[in-house]
């Protein structure tokens, strides 16, 4: 049986001591704030929950991220930010000798992180680097990718900060680091080691920094944020403000299933009730769902859960429970029977 949704009889901010919060698609989209993010995080902190922002974006310094969040009315210091650049640098330092050369393809955040662990940043394959590390930067172009390919072909260890295929911006979804890494991978035939989500390294470093015993991962992407939560063995909250939709959650593979679902970061402040089975239906609040003949069926019922926008999310929870149960029992679910579900803020 695959993992299902969890119940939490108290607000999540009271159950979990640390929120590991993704940035793009959760706190902001590009340079614009996600609605209700500031109030949700402020109230969670007031409830006693610590917060660290954990991002696969390796292009920026923690100071830059903290400044942007603070401008968006989310108070933040650099120590509240953990980037994939820092995780990648940690991986490199664990394997390479101090002073080893590393060809860095990426932005200032990655260059700073690599230098901070005692490694020497270089820009050319002719300098015979022991490793290549690649992270997202809008300035990465053909010349940098070519140098990376030359070095990898010569035997340098290939490390990627993350393998996100897309990057959410205010204009839509742009190519992410994974799309750029694939150019080097295609040219060399070498698959990189990834330091970012969905690998658990980034989360584990952040939790260790804070001394947390019961962290909660909060993200918008099933294939990175929530898969990373599963890989770390921790609970994950999927907020419907970014890349992965409610429909994606219903169709999620077991390794990417969230533990909780919420419309936005205000969902840190309420209890969560897991669906239960009743006469063949999976019921949550005022919604129910079942799979019959490979098709998902939804039913609206009385007695919906209290709280802002909970009715719509209850429909998603019920649909997830029905779909996941059917999948775990070897039943087929027609994806075309799963329409658009629930809120998608922003």
TrEMBL record:
Signal sequence region: none
Q: Which UniProt keywords apply?
A: Hydrolase
Q: Which organism is it from?
A: Actinotalea lenta
**Classification via InterPro entries:** HAD-like_sf (IPR036412), HAD-SF_hydro_IA (IPR006439), HAD-SF_hydro_IIA (IPR006357), HAD_sf (IPR023214)
Hydrolase as a keyword of this entry, yes or no, is: yes
Superkingdom is: Bacteria
Q: Does the keyword Ion transport apply?
A: no
Q: Which GO terms describe its molecular function?
A: hydrolase activity
Q: What is this protein called?
A: HAD-IIA family hydrolase
Note down the stretches annotated as region Disordered: 327-346
Matching entries from Gene3D superfamilies are given as: HAD superfamily/HAD-like
């Amino acid at each position: 049986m695959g993992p299902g949704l969890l119940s939490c009889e108290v607000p999540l901010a009271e159950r979990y001591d640390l929120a590991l919060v993704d940035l793009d698609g959760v706190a902001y989209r590009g340079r614009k704030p996600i609605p209700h993010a500031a109030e949700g995080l402020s109230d969670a902190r007031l409830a006693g929950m610590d917060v660290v922002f954990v991002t696969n974006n390796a292009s920026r310094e923690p100071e830059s991220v903290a400044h942007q969040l603070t401008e968006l009315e989310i108070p933040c210091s650099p120590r509240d930010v953990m980037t994939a650049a820092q995780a990648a640098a940690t991986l490199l330092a664990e394997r390479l000798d101090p002073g080893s050369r590393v060809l860095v393809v990426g932005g200032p955040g990655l260059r700073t992180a690599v230098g901070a662990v005692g490694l020497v940043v270089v820009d050319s394959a002719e300098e015979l680097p022991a490793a290549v590390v690649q992270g997202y930067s809008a300035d990465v172009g053909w010349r940098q990718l070519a140098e990376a390919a030359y070095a990898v072909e010569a035997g340098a260890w290939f490390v990627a900060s993350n393998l996100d295929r897309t990057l959410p911006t205010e204009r839509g979804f742009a190519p992410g680091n994974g799309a750029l890494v694939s150019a080097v991978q295609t040219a060399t035939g070498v698959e990189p080691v990834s330091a970012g989500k969905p690998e658990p390294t980034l989360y584990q470093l952040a939790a260790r920094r804070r001394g947390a015993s019961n962290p909660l991962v909060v993200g918008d992407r099933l294939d990175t944020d929530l898969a990373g939560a599963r890989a770390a063995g921790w609970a994950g909250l999927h907020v419907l403000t970014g890349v992965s939709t409610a429909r994606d959650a219903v169709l999620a593979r077991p390794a990417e299933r969230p533990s909780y679902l919420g419309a936005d970061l205000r969902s840190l402040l309420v209890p969560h009730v897991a669906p239960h089975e009743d006469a063949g239906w999976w019921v949550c609040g005022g919604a129910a769902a079942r799979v019959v003949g490979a098709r998902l069926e939804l039913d609206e019922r009385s007695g919906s859960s209290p709280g802002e926008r909970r009715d719509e999310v209850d429909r998603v929870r019920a649909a997830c429970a029905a779909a996941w149960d059917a999948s775990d029992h070897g039943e087929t679910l027609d994806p075309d029977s799963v329409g658009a579900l629930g809120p998608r803020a922003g």
